[in-house]
Design brief:
This protein is an alpha/beta fold and 254 residues long. It has a single domain, classed as Rossmann fold (3-Layer(aba) Sandwich). Helix content is 29%, strand content 20%. The strands form 2 sheets. An 8-stranded mixed beta sheet has the order 1-2-11-10-7-3-4-6, covered by helices on one side. Strands 5-9-8 form a 3-stranded antiparallel beta sheet. Helix 1 crosses helix 2.
C-alpha cells in the first residue's frame, strides 16, 4: 500500500480492489467505534454504485460495527424510478447492505414522488435533524460527487438536497457500469445531496477503483479546486481518505 497527502486529502493505493475495500471498511469500523464513545447514534450517508461493492461487502461482514446504533441515508436517487425498481439506488443499497445488517433506521430518497422538489425539502428536513457523521462515497467519471456534476455543482450551495439534470457523461457512466443497457434508458434527472451537505460530515471515506476513473482521480488530485472537477473540493475538507486500486491510480505520481 502506498500513501501520501494532497493538502488535507489522504491518498491510499492498494494492490487490488479487494484489499482496497477491506481497508476502507476497517477504517470505517474504527471511526464508528470512536464516534460511538461520545454519541448514542450515528448518521451515515452511503453511495450506490458498483465501485462500492468491495467496500460495502467488507463493511457488512465486519462484526465490530454496531449497526443498531447507525441511521442510514443515501446520497442520491433518480427521479421517476419506482422505489422498488432494481435500477434505483435505494434497491442497490438494500441488496448491498441496508437489508443485510440491522440498522437502527434506513431513510430512502423517494425518487418516484410526483413532486421531486418537495421530496428534496423533505429529505433536507430529515438531514437537519440527523447531522451527518460519516459519508461513504465515490467519484464519478466526470469528477462528480453524489450527482453534483460540474454543470450544477456549487461549493456554497444554499440547498441541502436538490433536483438536478444529469450530464450525458454522468448518464453514460451508468451504461459503462452496466446499470442500464443503453443511454436512452438512463433517467435524465435525479435528487442529490449537495456539496456543503456532504462536506458537513466528520469523516469521508471515498472509494474509487477501476480504469474508468483514472482521469477523474488524476484531476481530483492535480486540477485547481473548482467545480470543473467537483471532487477537488475534498482537498479542503477535514480528514477525507481516498482509496484507490492500481487501475484508478495509474496516472498518479506520489
Amino acid at each position: 500500500m502506498k500513501e501520501w497527502k494532497k493538502e488535507r486529502l489522504t491518498v491510499r493505493v492498494f494492490n487490488n480492489r479487494s484489499e482496497m475495500g477491506i481497508a476502507a471498511a476497517k477504517d470505517f469500523a474504527l471511526a464508528v467505534e470512536r464516534l460511538l464513545k461520545t454519541k448514542d447514534t450515528l448518521n451515515v450517508v452511503y453511495a450506490a454504485a458498483p465501485s462500492q461493492n468491495e467496500f460495502l461487502r467488507a463493511m457488512a461482514n465486519d462484526a465490530r460495527i454496531d449497526f443498531r446504533r447507525i441511521a442510514a441515508f443515501h446520497m442520491d436517487e433518480y427521479t421517476g424510478l419506482s422505489t422498488d425498481s432494481p435500477r434505483s439506488f435505494g434497491s442497490f443499497l438494500k441488496n448491498a447492505i441496508f437489508d443485510r445488517v440491522p440498522f437502527k433506521e434506513v431513510h430512502l430518497i423517494k425518487g418516484d414522488t410526483k413532486d421531486p422538489d418537495e421530496e428534496a425539502r423533505r429529505y433536507s428536513r430529515l438531514l437537519a435533524t440527523h447531522p451527518i457523521d460519516i459519508v461513504c462515497m465515490g467519484i464519478g467519471e466526470n469528477g462528480h460527487i453524489a450527482f453534483n456534476d460540474p454543470s450544477v455543482a456549487d461549493f456554497n450551495d444554499p440547498l441541502a438536497v436538490k433536483v438536478v439534470e444529469l450530464e450525458e457523461t454522468c448518464r453514460l457512466q451508468q451504461v459503462h457500469d452496466k446499470c442500464f443497457p443503453q443511454l436512452s434508458e438512463v433517467p435524465t434527472h435525479a435528487l442529490t445531496l449537495t456539496i456543503p451537505t456532504l462536506a458537513s460530515a466528520t469523516y469521508h471515506f471515498c472509494v474509487v477503483p477501476a480504469s474508468s476513473k483514472t482521469k477523474a482521480v488524476h484531476d481530483t488530485l492535480n486540477s485547481p479546486i473548482s467545480t470543473a472537477c467537483p471532487a477537488t473540493v475534498m482537498r479542503t475538507w477535514g480528514q477525507p481518505v481516498l482509496y484507490l486500486d492500481p487501475d484508478s491510480a495509474r496516472m498518479l505520481h506520489d
